[in-house]
Fold each of these.
Amino acid sequence: MGEILLEKYIITQEMLDFALELQKKERGKYLGQIILELGIPQDQLNEALDYFQHRKKIGDILVEDKIILPAQLREALAKQREGGKFKKPLGRILMDFGYIDYDQYINALAKHFLMQVVSLRNFQPSKRLQKIIGEVYAKKNKIVVLENGLDKLKLALSEPNSTLVEEIRRFALLSKRIEFYLAQSSEIDPCLEKLAADRTC
């Protein structure tokens, strides 16, 4: 991944060396997460990974992190293929089988999409901020607007997928940088319920 980011001029060799040193100290963190924490914009990282088709698959992340066995991954993938056009997310199937819990799924999603996990436990959602996404769209896709600044839009998602992320990027204002964060469904749902109940503007 480091070579990809160097090739796209997203990071310098010095930054890469520094990130690799940090990775040695912070075992369990992916290089992409560390580079993100160093301040490289999320959209640049994701664009580079997608361009070079170098994004790690969720199943591979779980096997690599020794959370599931390769045989369990094969079993879940076979079950997913049975769904045809209406495939269930792999993480959901693994949870149904009891191979992973929700926290492990969220952490794998975070590594796959290079998103930071955020807690919404004490977050106060704003109807005014949420308007940029739209109530129906936000409810359907479980999105909460965290911040809407002059040049930055921060969104929390509970179950991102490539199609949703690209759709949001396509329809958002071109002048804004979009930052995505992962939050648990159990924290996003109450925020959306509060927003639906709030009749003020």
Amino acid sequence: MPAPHRDAFGSELVSAAEAARRSVVPATQSDRASLFTSWVAFCDDLGHEPFLSDVPPDLHIDFFIVFACRYRRGVLSRSSLPVRSKRVEEALRAVGQEFARLGLQDPRLDGTKYTFRLRTLFKAWSDDDPAASRVWPVNITILRALSTTLQHHPNRPRAEAIIDLATIGFYFLCRPGEYALSPATDRGRSTPFRLRDTTFSSPTIQRAPAADCSSHDVQAGTYVSLTYTDQKNATRGEALGHGSSGDTTLCPVHAAQRRVLHLRHHLAPPECPLYRYFDAGGTPHDITTGDITAALRTAAAAVQHITNIPPNRVVAYSLRSGGATALLVSGVDETAIRALGRWKSDAIFLYLRTQASTLTANYSRHMLLHGQYSFSPATDQYSDHDLLPLQAPPHLADTLNAADQHVAHTPKDPP
């Protein structure tokens, strides 16, 4: 191949490789790089190069299995502690995909599935894993307590921002980084909703942009929409909306109105995230996921005797599961909940978008009414075996428990 063509050919390959890497969020890229570093150290200790060019191909799987065993025991893990089977799968995936990027055979795979030896090994480890420690949902009772615990907070703009953002997170089933500032260590695709992503509608005005419309149009809104730009699992350019819940405080429309009017009062630009607030002196500050977690735990502790929800198991993500649980208890179809929460249901979302206003206009009322669910009282220790509220429809218990059992005992096919 002539030199100019060879250079152009190589340049295209490099560009394609870079584009492929960008398909994975930075946090995952960093994690995979760290995992491959552990593999490099493992191979170096055994006197072999990382891609095992000096080892017969039929023995590559043996190296993968020994690496998996040591990583499982914590010998090679970052924490130096034993890890769960799923984490071992992630470690082997990171290594196998590096082989594939070079055009080599991924030793993990037999065709498109794990080799028999890996499949049975992951199954055995999955059976031995302790039950996962899951976050508990935040319900309406906790959200009401949040308003109470913050009503005398000396920094009113901050307190009001936390209450409004928590309300938005609950009703819109947001991931934490979509309604609050995520820490630098969380670099996943959790793009925050901004002023320009917010629109209001009323019987007389449709989709008035919050960044440009009059204050009267904002205040007159009876329906609020958030438009997806780069949020995870979302269809870009599409919007999800809610009508009024009927409550002056715990209402997605009123919460969004308060955020928008506050930001507009301080001349915030359209790109300003909804999690920003301005103090009495006009200085901007951001509400973080840590701020949300701390406030929610205080509120959860105040009403634990009612909800039986352990405060130390509440985090910012609990608003997402809490809103979904409220919809579940209210009888909304599970498929619609998956679509609204963007749980890998793109086809359903494309259907919902054409009727979003009709379908979701009354959901906030359902969530307000049925969001005061509670759980069975704890004994010596909180159990994750069944996080289904007492008020949930009876048929859901068997369905969800069966699904949990299937997931817990089925090794995932490699991506």
Amino acid sequence: MAAKAISAVEAPGTADGCQQQEDVAALERFVAPYRGRGACIHTCILEGDPARQIQDAALDLPADLVVMATHGRGAFEHLVLGSVTEKVLRHATCPVLTLGAKVSTEPSFPMFRRVLCALDLTAASARTLHVALSLAEENMASVTLLHVLEGMSERAGSQQIEDAFDRLRFHVPPETQAFCSVTERVEEGSAWREVLRVAETTDADLIVMGAHPSGLFDWPFFGATLNHVVREAHCPVLVVKDLTARVGARREVSTASALLRHPDAIVF
């Protein structure tokens, strides 16, 4: 497993030699406790727009996973994600694992015993489900598959709910029951509120969501949903990207367990 710890410094070209040495030393002190634990860690300091530097570094590696904390700053902290995180979530071409301020700093092992996988049941949901089930197999975890119906009419309600249950069951391979327990849930209401509520009631260790808005103008709605979940979740959130959008990547992983056990990862 190889990981690269990156510190991206804004205001390009302003860091003098002394400051650069201090930054390098600070980053090395930060990662020192994690050396020798089975991961090969490389560090680097980059100057420029942090989001752009992270995206470029992920493509150059090429990275299978970007791991970053989320933190809004200033007066709008309660409304939005940190701008760097939001940009990376929007433009990164590999999955992004986010850890919000409410996530415990003392992980248990296995880390992911209860996985909540939120599916919108579009064609791209297959990749999201594949990742969730692969992680469940690796951790012998239980999985809750969640689909949220928004704006449902009263007349069509019961039929829509039954159809959603059928589609959730249809997408689960029969062999899945051999390595994990799968529960399907269909809820009504606000997507982000229901994801957070179900994550809390199931005591989820991980939320898996797909990032595949169908077009540029879908992002404001999609981003707002993801914003709320990532910011408020009490567990890590894995945002799965559509692999067809991986521009410049020279390889792909076959399963999510390979992605997390033997990744080239960018840690920010």
